[in-house]
Design a protein that fits this description.
- With 256 residues, this protein is of the alpha/beta class.
- The chain starts with a helix and ends with a helix.
- Helices cover 31% and strands 29% of the residues.
- The mean pLDDT is 95.
- Strand 8 and strand 9 form a beta hairpin.
- The chain has three domains: 42 residues, no CATH class; 137 residues, no CATH class; 71 residues, no CATH class.
- Strands 8, 9, 10, 11 and 12 form a five-stranded mixed β-sheet that branches. A four-stranded mixed β-sheet has the order 1-6-4-5, with helices on both faces. It has a three-stranded antiparallel β-sheet with strand order 3-2-7, with no helix packed on it.
Amino acid sequence: MNPDGAVAYTRVNAQGIDLNRDVIDKKAPESVLLQKVLEEVKPDYCFNLHDQRTIFSVAPDNKTATMSFLAPSVDVERNITEGRKRTMSVISSINKSLQQIMPGRIGRYTDEFYPTATGDNFQKMGYNTILIEAGHSKGDYKRKESRLGTFLALLEGLRFIALESDMDLHRDYFNIPNNEKNYLDIIVRNISLNGKRLDIGILFIEKLKEEKLIFEPSVNQLTNLANFNADKIIGGEDLIFKDEKDVELWVKSTFN
């Protein structure tokens, strides 16, 4: 649906329109086409597929969220409609299946209502919509495990929709832990900055450079990160910095 965005590694199209926020205005031709297909097919269920950044974690151990799911809300009150119950039941079945291969790394995405979002509005229109967020596994920057997780989620979702009649599984949906943002790519613990001891939280920014995907390190946080987890945790007791600019220069030179 977004070939220009795929080439440029962005979710916006060539007009600069975020297609995931254009379902109401339909300024983009891609949005018009999607709505046309939706009205022609009139699906009972939709699978809304996304990538999820490495910042997301799963309680209680702050493991990285390899997969996350959402039954989108249809209003700001987040009322649980019959359509949402069906969506929740499908997700509950998917979660039960995936927990066998990635235990403790499956989260529930926030169900805050986004008035212009595609998934929320599809759900509001009566098309039961299962949002799948393909996240991150420790050290897996090519996303092999989350791609597998997405495939298995689709497989189990379709199996459940086709063969099962028990839609009371929606209660199990709320047993899936909420996504939290307590994960980073690298944490350097206990550095000295202006005489204070704190941690450096580093995130990789994904960019295309000469048609290759690169990961540029950036300082995301400078604080006590005791409650955070990361792909790599490094002791920084011997590191002494005068100011934040020195920290940024060190991070770029060390992790590029």
